[in-house]
């Protein structure tokens, strides 16, 4: 008898890809972050006035965070399965950016189209923007 192997489905795989992105962001290494994206990915970054398309543009976008101490924490998400090799993950996360040595939280929202290319899941499209908090 062969040992039982747990097989992940598209939802688990897509969410694992998003978690890898968050961990890579926290490592503050632009090249590591870029590896979580598909080679032709499109990024609409939280603090960018332009569309970043492709690996080098994504590395360039994340270069300012190198060795910064910035982190990312995903607070809430929803996963929409498109098919066995594509899912949309959307939700809220908080960037904690170090400004003058002090942590400054930046609540944000995101949508990622995560696709399976070969045996690997990567982000094909990522949109991030500041989270509009409810008015008191």
UniProtKB/TrEMBL annotation:
It comes from the Bacteria. InterPro entries: DUF4440, NTF2-like_dom_sf, Steroid_delta5-4_isomerase. Residues 16-121 form the DUF4440 domain. Pfam families: DUF4440. This is SgcJ/EcaC family oxidoreductase. It comes from Bradyrhizobium archetypum.
């Amino acid at each position: 008898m062969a040992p039982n192997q747990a097989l992940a489905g598209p939802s688990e795989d897509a969410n694992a890809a998003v978690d890898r992105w968050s961990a890579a962001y926290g490592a503050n290494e632009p090249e590591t972050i870029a590896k979580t994206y598909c080679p032709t990915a499109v990024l609409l970054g939280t603090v960018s006035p332009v569309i970043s398309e492709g690996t080098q543009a994504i590395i360039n976008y994340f270069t300012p965070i190198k060795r910064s101490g910035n982190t990312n924490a995903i607070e809430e998400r929803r996963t929409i399965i498109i098919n066995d090799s594509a899912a949309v993950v959307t939700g809220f996360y908080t960037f904690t950016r170090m400004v003058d040595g002090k942590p400054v939280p930046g609540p944000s929202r995101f949508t990622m189209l995560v696709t399976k290319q070969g045996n690997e899941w990567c982000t094909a499209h990522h949109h991030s923007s500041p989270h509009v908090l409810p008015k008191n």
